[in-house]
Automatic annotation (TrEMBL), chain A:
Name of a matching Pfam family: FecCD
Organism (species): Neobacillus vireti LMG 21834
Superkingdom of the source species: Bacteria
Transmembrane segments: 12-35, 67-83, 95-114, 120-141, 153-175, 195-214, 240-267, 279-300, 312-329
PANTHER family given in the database record: FERRIC ENTEROBACTIN TRANSPORT SYSTEM PERMEASE PROTEIN, SIDEROPHORE TRANSPORT SYSTEM PERMEASE PROTEIN YFIZ-RELATED
GO-annotated biological processes: siderophore-iron import into cell
MF-aspect GO terms: transmembrane transporter activity
Keywords attached to this entry: Cell membrane, Membrane, Transmembrane, Transmembrane helix, Transport
Similarity comment: family membership: Belongs to the binding-protein-dependent transport system permease family. FecCD subfamily.
Name this polypeptide is given: Transporter permease
One Gene Ontology term, aspect cellular component: plasma membrane
Keyword Ion transport in record: no
UniProtKB/TrEMBL annotation, chain B:
Membrane disposition: Peripheral membrane protein
Taxonomic superkingdom: Bacteria
Listed SMART domains: AAA
Localisation: Cell membrane
Domain ABC transporter: 4-240
Biological-process GO terms, alphabetical: iron ion transport
Record's keyword terms, sorted: ATP-binding, Cell membrane, Ion transport, Iron, Iron transport, Membrane, Nucleotide-binding, Transport
One Gene Ontology term of the molecular function aspect: ATP hydrolysis activity
GO cellular component: plasma membrane
Designated name of the protein: Ferrichrome import ABC transporter ATP-binding protein FhuC
Length: 336, 264
């Protein structure tokens, strides 16, 4: 009888632990970097109006950048978790199902065609691109009768993504804007400003809150479609809403940092090992662990090769690839 | 007037019609068994009646309402379904899974109430799955898992319960246990049970009403005497049966059978 209570108390503990790790990681990310800064500088930067060189660096460069890392990490992880649950596919993530590539292509197109494009325009373009990418993938994946099988989805996603990346490259070359595009898509978190965050973060927060609201629905959907209908779920409606949420989260992330594969794949799997397979626990935990992970990757990127930056995407991929292989090796059993 | 019936129901997948012009009444507060050979459309019929798949033409009426017009969450409080093969790939613990049987009664953020916990506990109790409560469902044996899914359907607390082959995976003792549990629910709580069974003797022993299907149509529907006999079974399964009596229950019983050679 007290099972559920017992379990949620357990979860609360885990959640508190995760939040503590998160705060710790945030402090580390704020303190370490190319410029020599101390915990005291960070404290002053966050709590006072004092200024000196170190404090300005922290306040104007590092702080917005780490806030960006937090939200992008959380957005991609939650987006990946939703996709895995919705498609019952352990390999699903925004990068694999065409969302990232679509957003990327849209980004290239908008830079090419609207030279004066502001941040909001670009973000909206990214949303649309993510939607188009995903719709093509799901369209191809479900063309055959009997709905989309996990394998068909991944194959379609890979093919469509490759195509869309080629489109971005082609546009970049043709309009001689490759450098602008790649600065955007490979630049990661470098140069993240408060004004960019102001536009993007609200979408990410809204997306994550909505997903938490639907977490119970997602669990049921992840079990079995027939069971979900039998329990009174309006499955089509729920799927559409979840789909829109993943598009928002992915589009916002791409607008901010460009490509960032593997986080959406990896984090939910790590989280399942900690909290089990109920999405009521997976989603909030994914948000936190995704943020921690991204902070870690960014800090490493800034520090392992001072004074040069190692691209975050490369670091994430380096950490993600072995993980991907483990999942493939285990045949996706990690999902369950 | 019964609560649930179909009228000239046609169900199919894309172009292939599976259930054809089928009209059946589900007797209230009784146990109904659906029998028929593999692929004849038993699961398809069950899924259509429980609105899991849509039907082409005809109607399914529950409490005087066409179910396609009814709110799906309201339906989920009236009828529960245990599908034939619920994907077992669930790492949820048994307790978590069964608690999702309360889904139709909850709002998005609503916590489980005391009543919910009581029902969940009762469902775990009667299916004897309480001891697994904290174990992940996919770490159970096929039979244990089947009982857990039954527990989830019971936690839904519906008047009508559909079960598609609830006894698969179970050993003889556990088969009987599940059937006796359903019988008890039927007798003590007056729940209407509709299930697909492959074992004819079990159908004869436990069902008040048997529907024999062939190629998506009813060959015969009635009590065990009407359906479990040489003639009907010959048509439905192409088998030549020897029907006797169960010495304990006195119900008809298929003692032995042969396949019919050539045309029937
Ligand atoms: N999703 C589907 N798409 C297309 N055809 C299907 C689908 N599901 C079932 N069928 C076909 O419909 C027919 C009836 O299937 P159904 O599952 O209803 O049979 P059944 O009587 O339950 O058989 P069994 O005893 O093997 O469970 C079969 O020929 C099957 O191949
Ligand atoms: Mg069947």
């Amino acid at each position: 009888m007290t099972k559920e209570k017992h379990f949620s108390r357990n979860f609360s503990l885990k959640l508190i632990a995760a939040i503590m790790v998160f705060v710790g990681m945030f402090v580390v990310a704020m303190v370490f970097g190319a410029a020599n800064t101390t915990v005291k500088d960070v404290w002053l930067a966050l709590t006072s109006h004092t200024t000196n060189e170190q404090i300005t660096i922290i306040r104007e460069l590092r702080f917005p950048r780490e806030v960006g890392a937090i939200f992008v990490g959380a957005a991609l992880a939650v987006s990946g978790a939703i996709m895995q649950g919705m498609t019952r596919n352990p390999l699903a993530e925004p990068g694999i199902l065409g969302l990232s590539a679509g957003a990327n292509a849209a980004l290239a197109i908008s830079i090419a065609l609207i030279p004066s494009a502001n941040y909001l325009t670009i973000m909206v373009a990214c949303f649309m691109g993510a939607a188009v990418g995903a719709i093509i993938v799901f369209g191809i994946g479900s063309m055959k009768k009997g709905g989309f099988s996990p394998l068909r989805l991944v194959l379609a996603g890979t093919a469509v993504s490759t195509f869309l990346y080629a489109v971005s490259e082609g546009i970049g070359l043709y309009y001689k804007i490759s450098k602008d595009v790649s600065m955007w898509t490979a630049g990661g978190l470098i140069g993240t400003t408060w004004s960019q965050l102001q536009i993007i973060v609200p979408f990410i927060i809204a997306g994550i809150l909505f997903s938490l609201f639907l977490s119970r629905q997602l669990t049921i959907l992840s079990l079995n479609e027939e069971v979900a209908v039998g329990l009174g779920q309006k499955t089509t409606q729920i799927k559409v809403i979840l789909f829109i949420i993943t598009i928002m989260l992915t589009g916002a992330s791409v607008a901010l940092v460009g490509n960032m594969a593997f986080i959406g794949l990896m984090v939910p799997h790590v989280v399942r090992a900690i909290v089990g397979t109920d999405y009521r626990y997976i989603l909030p935990m994914s948000a936190i662990i995704g943020a921690v992970f991204m902070l870690l990757a960014d800090t490493l990127g800034r520090t392992i090769n001072i004074p040069y930056e190692t691209p975050v995407a490369a670091i994430v991929a380096m950490m993600g690839l072995p993980f991907f292989l483990i999942i493939v090796h285990k045949g996706g059993k990690v999902l369950s | 007037m019964v609560r649930l019936f179909t009228d000239e129901l046609n169900v199919g997948y894309s172009d292939r019609l599976i259930v054809k012009n089928l009209s059946v009444h589900i007797p209230d507060k009784k146990i109904t068994a659906i029998i028929g050979s593999n692929g004849c459309g038993k699961s398809t019929l069950l899924k259509a009646i429980t609105r899991i798949i849509s039907h082409q033409t005809g109607s399914i009426i529950l409490d005087g309402e066409n179910i396609t017009k009814e709110n799906t969450k309201v339906l989920a409080k009236k009828m529960a379904i245990l599908p034939q093969t619920p994907e077992s790939a669930s790492g949820l613990t048994v307790g978590e899974l069964v608690s999702y049987g309360r889904f139709p009664y909850q709002s998005s953020f609503g916590r489980l109430t005391k009543k919910d916990y009581e029902v969940i506990d009762w469902a775990l109790d009667v299916t004897r799955t309480k001891e697994f409560k904290f174990r992940p469902v996919d770490a159970l044996s096929g039979g244990q898992r089947q009982r857990v899914w039954i527990a989830m359907a019971l936690a839904q607390e519906t008047d009508i319960i559909f079960l598609d082959e609830p006894t698969t995976y179970l050993d003889m003792a556990h088969q009987l246990e599940v059937l006796e549990l359903l019988q008890k629910l039927n007798r003590e709580q007056e729940r209407t049970i509709v299930m697909v069974l492959h074992d004819l003797n079990q159908a004869a022993r436990f069902a008040d009403y048997i529907v024999a299907l062939k190629d998506g149509q009813i060959v015969k529907a009635g009590n065990c005497e009407d359906v479990i006999n040489h003639h009907v079974l010959r048509t439905v399964f192409q088998i030549d049966t020897e029907i006797g009596r169960d010495p304990r229950t006195n119900k008809p019983m298929c003692v032995t059978y042969n396949l019919l050679k050539g045309d029937s």
